């Protein structure tokens, strides 16, 4: 069954989301029959939800992600709470529920700050900054982008130019 999940990740990277979804579901079914199911099944479910979001199946993805958020909160796994919160943010943004997306990007960033996961925190803050721009919240966008760039000082030229432009324009 490991081959199934590996192939699902490959299909996902090729943007063949429907095929990846089927293989993720197959791998999850296999692992669920283990007693008890390994922690890997929760990670697979999170990745399934991401594939569903990319395939514009946000509502079932949200059900999975909220269930996972409950699970990881119950076992106090801050890192995976951050991962799931970031995935929830993407799903809500895709549905046009941008204020909920803001809430979950903020939660993800806070979780990653607590766990010292700098790359993930940078990504959450960067995504939050872009979302704030879409919402017309320029000050919050600058603040989030500055926070992201302070975490990752060797950010891309594009990000550094964006920060400079935002400071000049706004």
Number of helices: 9
Say how many strands there are. Answer: 0
Shape: elongated
Structural class: mainly alpha
What portion of residues is helical? Answer: over 70%
Q: Tell me the distance between the termini.
A: 53 Å
Strand content: under 5%
Radius of gyration over all CA atoms, rounded: 17 Å
Characterize the largest beta sheet: strand count, sense, and whether it forms a barrel: none
Mean pLDDT: 90
Low-confidence stretches are none
| SSE succession | HHHHHHHHH
Topology, pairings included?
Elements lengths: L1 H12 L3 H16 L7 H15 L3 H17 L3 H17 L3 H18 L2 H17 L3 H14 L5 H13 L1
Helix pairs in contact: 1-2, 2-3, 3-4, 3-5, 4-5, 5-6, 6-7, 7-8, 8-9
